[in-house]
Design brief:
Strand content: 25-35%
Strand order of the largest sheet: 1-2-3-4-5-6-8-7
Helix content: 25-40%
Number of strands: 8
Oligomer: single chain
Structural class: alpha+beta
Distance between the termini: 23 Å
Number of helices: 5
Largest sheet: 8 strands, mixed
Amino acid sequence: MTTTDIGTFTIRELDPLKDAELLHSWVTHPKSAFWMMGDARLQDVEREYMAIAAAEHHDAFLGLLDGEPVFLMESYDPRYVELVGLYEPEPGDVGMHFLVAPTDRPVHGFTRAVITAVMAELFADPATRRVVVEPDVSNKAVHALNEAVGFVAEREIDKPEKRALLSFCTREQFDAAIREVRSVAI
């Protein structure tokens, strides 16, 4: 649970069948183009998240704001999923994806609050030493968000589906970024 000026974020395990219709509306929305599921059918979304639910090294979660679903979060072990052979994983590395529900009424600071809640959730596990992300190199908005919470870009990599910017954030970098935001707000 993360409480912000916007409200209280909680995170629960995703139910691939119960949540599929909601997820389908999110991942196929034009604002979610970087999720690369724009043409997915409902059954495709169900199948994708059933596979994640069955996977040993990949998990999906639904993020709620004051009880209402507002984002999707995935975590994965980069030794086995997404980044195999693309970098040298360190103990305590956790991969992450997040998707904010598309809206026609954006709230200033909302996406930053979401990524902060996601990172807080990942670092709540004492075994997590570093969060790894690999967004599309052309997704400038997410690069800025990542940097705001402490990520440092390392290099571009080629994945089967995209050219990605491999970036890392340690617990210390995240804590420093959050302290900086709080000191500016005071």
